[in-house]
Structures are given as structure tokens and as C-alpha cells.
């Protein structure tokens, strides 16, 4: 099953940092989750830990990924 997992850090209107996650099967809109952090440092730490976990599970940057984008895909071979 081909899946995707997208993570990004976004500023909020109140000066906090949100960690945005979108995941699902390729070709779908997927599901989403937003976690808000009062500290940018903690948001970055959570981002990097999540990135490490997903890479350990076989997710890799997708074809349409830019250097600053964190969209990861998992192919059927990695399942």
C-alpha cells in the first residue's frame, strides 16, 4: 500500500509554532493533526523526532519534494 506522510512547522497568529501532520494513502486527501508548541525549539525537536521515526519505518522524501518540504512517502516495497 503506497502511503504519504507530510509534516511541517507553521507559525500561529499568537506567536506559537504548530507542527502540522497530514497522512494517508496516495491519491487521497488523508487525515491531519495539528500540535501547538509555545516554544519553537520544542516544536523543532518534535519535528526532528517524528522525521527520524518515519524514516526508520521506511518513509522517504517523495518525487515532488523540495529541500524545505518534509513530505515523505512509503512504497509497497518498504511495507
TrEMBL record:
Domain WGR per the UniProt entry, residue ranges: 1-73
Domain of life of the native organism: Bacteria
Native organism: Rhizobium rhizogenes
InterPro entries, per database record: WGR_dom_sf (IPR036930), WGR_domain (IPR008893), YehF/YfeS-like_WGR (IPR049809)
Claim: Cell inner membrane is one of the keywords in the record: no
PROSITE patterns from the UniProt entry: WGR
Keywords: Plasmid
SMART domains according to UniProt: WGR (SM00773)
Protein name: WGR domain protein
Annotated Pfam families: WGR (PF05406)
Amino acid at each position: 500500500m503506497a502511503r504519504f506522510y507530510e509534516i511541517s512547522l507553521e507559525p500561529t497568529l499568537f506567536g506559537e509554532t504548530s507542527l502540522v501532520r497530514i497522512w494517508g494513502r496516495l491519491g487521497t486527501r488523508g487525515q491531519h493533526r495539528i500540535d501547538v508548541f509555545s516554544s519553537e525549539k520544542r516544536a523543532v525537536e518534535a519535528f526532528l523526532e517524528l522525521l527520524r521515526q518515519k524514516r526508520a519505518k521506511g518513509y522517504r522524501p517523495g518525487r515532488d519534494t523540495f529541500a524545505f518540504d518534509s513530505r515523505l512517502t512509503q512504497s509497497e516495497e518498504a511495507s
